[in-house]
């Protein structure tokens, strides 16, 4: 998973653009010419930082605030608000993007022609450059009973509009994979943040056909829901549309191990041992469940925080994992070439099993301690099959020679 986007500076000013909508501009705190600095939050209402003299508005109607993931709106008052026509009740939260229309009264139910020409409490939110935003006409609320498929049962197909009523996934893309991307998802009901993996049906089916794989689209969702380990990312729920599968997972804030190594170089032996042991424990748990991950690599190890002395690992991305020693997928070339075991490369001559994960763990440990992969790109498969590697770090890398490390897991 990729690191989250850096926090934008925040400040708000009110102006009046065309069509009678007020412009709620968000700029840098302390920037010259700004009238309403956003020091923690910006409250809109009859008694807020931005005051609206309309009896239908609460004294503290809503607040706009910012965290490391971007800008968000929270409905404070009992009277409702609307973001792009979507109704928000007290306690609801939604991510904000430039161009979002915030209405403190029902925009589809004006009381007079004057309100049509000049709405009394409608804002256009701006944060940096203006972005075009498609207006959505939402049909019906997303019921809790529609969410979360059970093992072996497909979750009902939902419309994208139904999902958008319960989940806001527009603000941040956390990472991308071969046939999916991971977005920051904010649950409107309570404002809780999750990582939402969105898998494209079309791209997955193309992969499925090219690899002759029997993995189904819902395979990862079913597998994750069946697992419970502190060092494996948890799946909260899942649902699907005609074009995509959505996996709602716990949000792990420290980025992935690969980016940590790229930015900070190789791990000290003590930190590497402390981090590697729970990774091994998680893989041992998978193997007890007869699950082979098949794509273990630093990219798929998420960290709870960036501080190496405190971070804990969580294994992610079980998209190509399989759960049966007799599965035909045990002969499929899956994973990432630099982390392939010799058995995977020679899979057409015979199947492979749990030992391929153990090999990949060894490569992960090598990278953890040296900051560089053990095999060069040229003649990669030959090096792996023959076990040819060098302990000399590549020129210019923040790395150190690999050393022996013991991990009783």
Automatic annotation (TrEMBL):
Annotated FHA domain residues: 25-88
Biased composition (Polar residues): 388-400
Location of region: Disordered: 388-409
InterPro entries: Aur-like, FHA_dom, Kinase-like_dom_sf, Prot_kinase_dom, Ser/Thr_kinase_AS, SMAD_FHA_dom_sf
Binding residue positions for ATP: 197, 317
A Pfam family it matches: FHA
KW Phosphoprotein (keyword) present: no
Coiled coil: none
Domain Protein kinase: 168-409
Subunit-structure text: Monomer.
Name this protein carries in UniProt: Uncharacterized protein
């Amino acid at each position: 998973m990729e690191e989250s986007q850096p926090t934008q500076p925040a400040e708000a000013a009110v102006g009046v653009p065309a069509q009678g909508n007020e412009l709620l501009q968000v700029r840098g705190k302390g920037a010259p010419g700004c009238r309403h600095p956003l020091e923690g939050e910006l409250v809109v209402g009859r008694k807020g930082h931005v005051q609206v003299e309309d009896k239908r508005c609460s004294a503290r109607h809503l607040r706009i605030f910012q965290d490391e993931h971007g800008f968000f709106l929270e409905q404070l008052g009992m009277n409702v608000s609307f973001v792009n026509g979507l109704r928000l009740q007290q306690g609801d939260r939604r991510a904000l993007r430039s161009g979002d229309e915030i209405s403190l009264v029902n925009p589809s139910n004006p009381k007079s022609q004057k309100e049509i020409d000049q709405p009394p409490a409608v804002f256009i939110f701006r944060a940096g450059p203006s972005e075009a935003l498609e207006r959505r006409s939402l049909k019906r609320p997303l019921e809790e009973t529609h969410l979360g498929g059970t093992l072996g049962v497909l979750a009902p197909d939902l419309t994208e509009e139904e999902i958008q009523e319960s989940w806001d996934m527009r603000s941040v893309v956390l990472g991308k994979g071969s046939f999916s991307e991971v977005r920051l998802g904010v649950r409107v009901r309570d404002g809780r943040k999750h990582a939402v993996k969105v898998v494209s049906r079309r791209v997955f089916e193309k992969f499925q056909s090219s690899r002759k794989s029997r993995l189904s689209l819902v395979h990862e969702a079913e597998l994750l829901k069946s697992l419970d380990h502190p060092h494996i990312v948890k799946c909260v729920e899942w649902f699907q549309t005609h074009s995509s599968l959505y996996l709602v997972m716990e949000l792990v804030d420290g980025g992935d191990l690969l980016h940590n190594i790229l930015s900070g170089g190789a791990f000290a032996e003590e930190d590497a041992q402390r981090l590697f042991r729970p990774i091994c424990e998680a893989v041992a748990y998978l193997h007890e469940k007869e699950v082979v991950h098949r794509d273990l690599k630093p990219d798929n190890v998420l960290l709870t925080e960036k501080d190496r002395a405190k971070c804990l690992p969580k294994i992610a991305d079980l998209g190509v994992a399989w759960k049966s020693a007799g599965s035909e997928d045990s002969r499929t070339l899956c994973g990432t070439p630099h982390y392939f075991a010799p058995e995977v490369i020679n899979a057409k001559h015979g199947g492979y099993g749990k030992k391929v994960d153990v090999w990949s763990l060894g490569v992960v440990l090598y990278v953890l301690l040296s900051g560089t992969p053990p095999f060069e790109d040229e003649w990669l498969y030959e090096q792996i099959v023959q076990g040819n590697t060098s302990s000399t770090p590549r020129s210019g890398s923040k790395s150190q020679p690999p050393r022996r490390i013991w991990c009783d897991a």
